[in-house]
Write a structure and sequence with these properties.
The protein has helices at 43-55, 79-87, 146-155, 164-174, and strands at residues 2-3, 8-16, 23-32, 64-67, 91-95, 113-118, 121-127, 136-142. The strands form 2 sheets. A 5-stranded mixed β-sheet has the order 4-5-8-7-6. The chain has 180 residues and is an alpha+beta fold. Helix 1 (43-55) runs parallel beside helix 2. It starts with a strand and ends in a 6-residue tail after the last helix. It has one domain (2-174): 2-Layer Sandwich (archaeoglobus fulgidus dsm 4304 fold). It is globular.
Length: 180
Amino acid sequence: MQYARNGSACAAAVVLAFPGLEPVERSVARRPVTFPYVPGFFSLREIPAALAALEGLRAKPDVLLCDGHGVAHPRRFGLACHLGILADLPSIGVAKSRLVGEHREPRFTRGAWAPLLDRGEEIGAVLRTREGVKPVYVSIGHRVSLATAIEIVLACSPRYRIPEPIRAADRLARGGPGSR
């Protein structure tokens, strides 16, 4: 998601073939931002543009990888939950930073993970997608287990810390290389 000075949001959706992660289809949508910035309610700003980007796809994705949290959220309902329910698709939250909870540091090897816990509840996983780099925060969004979410995120992260579907959508939203 990118925000313009004119008060609009730009969302991108990219469908990649699995397991090779080759691009199949892309969609971009720009929508006015109608909800103010309120910590913990960020998905309400992003949902209109994100849904429009998904609606612009002819190929329906099998699963959504969202640049944000799912149940690893203070209200247990982050962007991945919100978008997964409204789109009626399995969804996974993949965030670059922790919003809530505590964890031990996972080993430095690819695939190592540690539970993300909040008030005694497992709300996600701190997953190392690349050896020796910072982990990502994976949490379920909708209709997927945490074990499956971890497996999918690893399979979609063969070369970089961030999964390819999220990287491709971010490049497209920014209008960068490979976005056309």
